[in-house]
Every structure is written in C-alpha cells, then in structure tokens.
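Researcher: I'd like a structural prediction for the single chain below. Treat it as a standalone chain; there are no partners to consider.
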Amino acid sequence: MTWEFLPHAEQAIARFSGLINEVLFRRNEATSTGSDLGLLAARLVCLDGLRPETLPLLQEFRCTPYRCGDATALEWPEGPVKRLERRFLHPMTLALWPRLSVVVGNRTTSSSTPPSQDPQDDSKRHDVIRLLPLGDLLLALASWLSKVGLYKTSRSQSILEQLSADQIAWWSVHLPGPLFAHCTLTLSFTALERSAWGRLLAKHALVHRPEEFEAVDDGILDTTTNEPGERTFQLLEQIDATQGIGYDLAELRSMLEILKEDHPSGIDGLTKRVWIEGLQRMPLARMGVNPVTVALAGWICHMCELGTVTKANPAVSTLRQYVSAVLLALGKAMAGRDEAPEDWQADQLLEVYRCVYRETTKGRRPQALAALHSMHEYLMEAFDIEPLPGLIDSVRSDLVGGSDASLAEKPSINPVSKVDSADGRIPARVMANVIWDHEVDCCVERCKQASDPRLGRIAAVMIAIARECAVRNQDLSRLVLANVSFLADSRGAYCSIEVVRHAARGRLKTELSQRRLTVRDSRSLKTIREWVDFRRLETQNSKAYLFGESNNDKSRYRSAATQAFLNRVVKLATGYRRSRMYDLRHTVVSTQVSQALMSSAWVDANPLEIIASEAGHASPLTTIRSYSHLYEQALRMNLDIALESVVNASSQEMANALATITMQGRSLKGNSLVQAAKRRDIGLPSLWRMHMEAATHALPIETAQDPFEWAPPAALSASQRAKPQTPVHLLADALARMQRGENLEAIARVIGLPIDRMSVLTDRLHSWAYTLYCRQFPRKTAHARTPIDLLQCLESMHIKAAGASADLWSPLSRHLEGSVNRASMQAIITYWENAARGVYLALSPPANPRPLIALLVSGGLARGHLRVVAQVPKHDHSAPFPSTTSTDGSLPEGLRKDKTIGSVIDVFRQEANFNPWIETVAHRGDRPKMYLRINPHPAKDRAASSADATATLRAWLLAIKARLLLDELEDA
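Model: Treating it as a single chain, here is the predicted structure.
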C-alpha cells in the first residue's frame, strides 16, 4: 500500500499528538478542573480509537464497559446491518469512566437511577454492576476541545471535523493498513458477540433461554427437549438416502399443504411444531427423491427452529409468504442437478436465485428476495456453502444494502467514504463466531459418543484437520486417499493435504487450481494417520474417497449426516444457537489474521495474502471483511505502541497521572518510576502503562460472562422424542436397494434399523417370500434341493421395487404411513397368499380382492390406473382382442354371460364407487380368469407391457409384509 500525504498532514499529526498528551496529563489550566465528561470523550477518541461520530451510539445503545480477560471491552452496534464493533479500553479511559457514571442493574438502590433498557439486564440474570455515563458525550467533547485551544471553529470545518481529520492522519502513520482501513470504515472487521468471549472465560456452554428472542403471539417453539436446529439436522440426514434428479412437484405441494395447517390454540410456536412434525413425516428418504427436495424441507424446518435473516422468531404468516413465494420455483430451477448439496457453488446458486426472482411477480418480489436470502443463509449453515458473490436483485436490497437509505445519505464528520467494497455497496451481515480450543476438544469427545462409530471417526478426523486449516466441508468431503501424505521437515512430522475445490475426484493438472494444507499438531496427526491406515486396509484404490463407504470407492459415507452431526456437536459444545462446523474456518482465519497484525516480523510477502491463499480466497478483501473477528487485541497493541512513541512528559507528570488512577492521597515521586524502569530494563512509558493497567484491575465492573447463564456442555444423546415406526415406504426403498446390490449394513442405516434387527428381518422375509413362491410355482419348486436366495426369489416372482419411488405411488406411500392399521395390512397379505397360482393378482373367486382395491383407491390410484384383465373364453370369437372398455356393455358375449365379471364389477362399485376399466385378452390356462393390472398411464386405453406397473405393486405388498414382520420383532 502506498500512502500519499497532503501538505498539511504533518501539521495534523503533530496537533493530534499534542492532544493525546493533553488528555493524558491535563496540562491546560482551562481543562485541569471540571469538564470530565468531555475529557472522557476525548480519551475515547485519542486513546481508544473511537471516531467522534461513534460517541452518540454509546449513549443510544447504553454501552458500558466489561472485563474481557485481562482487557476491558466496550462494544456497540454500528452501520445499517448493525455490525458489532468493540474496543479494548486504555487504563486512563477506564479510570475516569466510573466517576462519571451511574450504576445500573440489580445492585441499583438509588431512585435516581434510570431503568436499564438492555435486553440482557433483567431480574433473571446475574447480579452485576454496569456503569452508564450520563450526559451528551459529543457535545461535551466539542466544549472540551474549545477550551484546549488546539482547534478553532472555521467556516469550512467545525471543531469535530478538524479533530476527525487529524485523527485519520495520525492513524495513517501509526496503524497497519488493515487496522487503519477498519478504523476509518474503509473496510470493516466484524467483532464477536459478547457471549463468545463469555464462553472463553466461563469454559462452559451458553444456556439458551427462549425469552432472549422475540416472541410472536406469545408463541415460542419449544426447545426444551431438543438442541436448537436438531430437528433440521434429523431431517437433512435423509439426503443420504436420495438419488433422484427430477422435479418432485408432489412432495413440494405436500410441503405447502403442511404450511396451511394451524394449531387449534392459534399460538405461532405450536403451529411451527405442527409444521416440523409434518415435514418429518414426509416420505423423503427414498432413492427417487431429489436431494434438493429434502434440502428445501430442511430450509422450512430451519426457519421454524432458528428464524430468518432478520428475525429469530418470525410469525407463521411471514414463513408462509416466504415459502409460497419461492418453494416451487426453487424446486423446478434446481431440478436436474446431480451434485450433492455440499458441492453446490455459490455463483451457480446466485444465477438460480436471480432466475427465480425475475420470474416472481412484482407484488411478491420483496417476500421472494427475503426468502432467497434466508435460503442461502440456511445453506451456508447447513452445507458450508460460500456467501453469494453478488446481489440477487439489480438494486440495493433491504437485506444486503440496508433498508434505511438515509443512513447512507447522512453527512458524516468522518471525511473517509464509508464503503466496504469496490462497487460501493454495504455488505450483508457477517456471522461472526469462533470455536475456542476447549470447545474443539469437547467436540472431539462428543464424536466418540456417536451412535454410528464410523461416522464418529470421520467427524473426529474432519475436526482434526479443520482446527488447524481453513477448510470448507466441500474441501474435506472431496478428498481422496491420494490427496493425503505424511512427511517431515526441520519442524518435525506433518500431514500434507491437497485440496481440490472444483474437481469431483482426484488431482487437478495445474497448481493454480488447488492448494495444500499442513497439519502439525501431534494429536491431530495421530487421528488422521489412524484413519488413513484404516481406509487403506479397506481399499487399495488411491482414488477412493478419504471419507468413503467401506465397500464402494465412488461413494462418500453419509456426507449429509456427517455434516449435520458436526454442526450438532459444535452447538452442544458452545450452547450458541448459530454455531456451526464452518465456524472453525472462521476461527483459523481470525487467529492467523490477529497474529499477523500483532507481528512485527513483516517479510517480503504480505501475510494477509498468504492467509487468503491458504483459505482459498481470491483476495484478502474477503478474508478481512468476513473472516477476521479477533482484531481488538491487535488494535490495542498498535495503539499502545503509538501512544508510547508520542508521549512527551516528565517522570513526575507520569507519576501524577498514575496517582489519579490509584487515588493515593499523596503524589507519587517521578524518580521512583525512573528507578523502577531501570531495574526492570524497560522504557519509562512502558512501565507507566503497566502500572496503570494493574491499578484499574481492581475496579468493580461486570465481566463478559455475567449477563448469561452457563452449564457444562450437554452429552450427545439421541432425540428424546419417541422414535416412530419404520414406514412402509422406507421398507419398499430398502427392497429397491437390495435389488440394486447395495450392502445390507448401508440399507439398515438408511432406514434407521440396527444391523442385527435388519438381518433378522431379512431372514424372515426371505423365508416367507420363498414359501409364497413355492405356493405360486409348485412345479418349479417341487424338486428344488436348496431354496433360492431372496433376490432370486424376488426376480422369479416378478417383484420390481425400483419403481416404488415414482410419483404414481406417492399418495399411496403417505396413506400407508398414517391411515392403514395392522389388521388392514394383514387382510391384504392374506389375499395375496391365497391368490391363484403364478404372479398375477387374481380378482375372480375364490380370491377376495376387496382389501387390496380399497387400499389402492384410498392411496390415490385413479380409475384409469386399475385395469381388470379378463380372459375371453377359448372358443368365443364374437369380438376382437385385445380391447379395452369401461363398461360391461361392449364385452364379448362369452364374458357377458360369465357371472364372474359381474361379481368383479360389483366389488369395484362397492369399494371404489366406479365401474372398472376392463381389458380383454386371449385365454391362457396358466393365468386367473380375471386379474389386476396397474396401468401407469390412466388416460391411455392400453399401455405397452414394459410400462406395466403391477410388478411395483407386488413390491409394495412385500414391503407391507416386511412391516408386519417388523411389528412382530418389535412386539417380541
């Protein structure tokens, strides 16, 4: 960076240096007595790096100092997006603060004390001391400056404007470029929330209290039995079972129907609970479902649990508007993608959002814009998607640019332009959070408690990498064994990890498209090495996924469930609702930036460029603006160094100033300070500052953790809700996976059964299916020496479960989940067991098809789907066939005379309330006289044999039998 100074810059720097000495030593007789409020304001500006225009914010938000470890912090929200700003105060500022303040909080006994308006200050909180200064700081500063004599009002500039210009000139000489840019609002860091510092000091997890968040209609979502976001994570685990790429219109419409429900009480929180339970009941964990559909269901659940971009607890009417505005459009626009959600790219998502926004009617665009921003914030939290690289709409939006245009138009006493990016727009709210070391250790311990040991080991390895390297979930999930190597150098052993950002597998050809990370911590090295050795025993393929399936080199192991688990353990360790695994990336970058800003060993290469490169950022701009949250100590250190360099005072003046802090009756001797500095071999200004810091430690003010409640991190436990029964649709999906050759252990994991229970179920289902097969094909099995296995049995019985995820069967899937009891299921299976020989579903007596027909009609199959196939008598040539008719009036004469057709038609009239479609075929002696066929095209007279869906219906019947067998196992 190259600085260019104007001719009067040196004069401004000298004037501000003189002002610093005045606020420290009060040499001017006009300011030596009284005007303490103005002196406090001047010290905040000169010693602590506050801009003069910030002073009204301290009063507006009733800001008070608090202990933050060895430092004393002062924070306030700033800017249209209420970015949190913080300073560590100088001892001279802190010493003056209590003298000009009143005590607010629970220890207040004076009737003159105004009530606190801080939401953190109520009767349920800890008993703390908060010091609130009285009076107008900015007005007092202007009055105090007029007495100093260094500034005079002119026509072109006021005293405060001159002060602000001098302050910037002084900063430009004494502060590193990033800190100077931050102080002048040219480029802003974002500070951590106070609770984050409290977590560090308390070494406990934050206790979430619903009353901290805005209530809507007295309705708060009950989170007493669930960690915040847990139900969203549970829902997202279903992504691992999905493989579709289509547009799941039926499922998306079902979500909209769920959002039409209201709780009878009318309380918003209870209505949200109804929605969440409805979303969790949806049959989404199927191969044919698009992962996008599950992600959209997770978005709705996430807004119910954790809120939107702007509100922690939005009204249900707001959520309905958001979802109805964009849900179907998002599902359609994102259909056809074959990438997993964690592989989605922010630039591609931006184009999708823009397309959805443009296609939205003008009247609904505000809701659509807000919904799309909430959608992306959810994707950032759930899948570590990067922030959007641009605006969704072409104009400055409420959420990205701030809704109050006047904030950008108000004249400022700071002559530096307040923009945070090259195009002049104000950035979106940054989610500033870090995970402290003790919390990372807690996360590692929680990984050992995972119900899935393999998932727990994978999570521990990911944490071992992420605690040292600024990686995304995308970076980790794409690693293959060839990307990891163990080496050594002069600093010792290390693990080198090659991260490929946009390649699906393996290495890239050019160095520019990849980066290498290094892990050196001995504990992390041990964890990573043990996992790599374990994976190399499972597979010899160096291109197999590092976090892959044990029996499939091309498949990642439960990537969505792993990400959900990691987010969950992070929330447990911190207690903070918005914590996520991605915060470890912020932690690594923030720590590195802080170390760079506090280091005096500036090498040829810019450290921020190196940090940005290792994090995969295109430039340090993103690194500073969105990932750097630990700047306060670096700023305090650089200000202290600069202050020591400009202090121009005798030892006695320093002693007198120190006496005002210690409140000693007699003055200290300057020579005592000089001798003490010589004995300790340090400079006099440094010793003087150390004595001031020590003197202010005894001041009775609150600490960072005082306003909050704390508890040890909760143990990782299963959900306290009763685990629902495994639905029939999951068992049908399990049959489809079996027929595809998937591992039984993986199938058990998808449907949520222990592997031992799954093995027993499979054995019993095989035994029953083979018995039915022998009954259907007695000649084939009469002389069989050994039973065929389950898959061969399914193939011989013409059972094809792959089609069970088609839209045709979605209503039946939902109907089976909640409306069919065990007795009805048993009646259907009894019908199938007693049907005629062969694979056909007989309709003619002695078969009793009533339970099956009732199920299919209730399950949403239309009249055109249910075809009665009737065999024309062998010698009847009265009508050509095959043919289709909807009544018995045009049937061949031989069929009209057969009483069987009349009885079948009566069954349909009684159970389905319509006359069936009848298809006539030539007579065959190996088939029932009349049987059922499922036509997937209800409007067509006949469908090709390849389109016959009856084989899928038989798969549903087998899944029903599996559900009954599972009931027997659970009852035993």
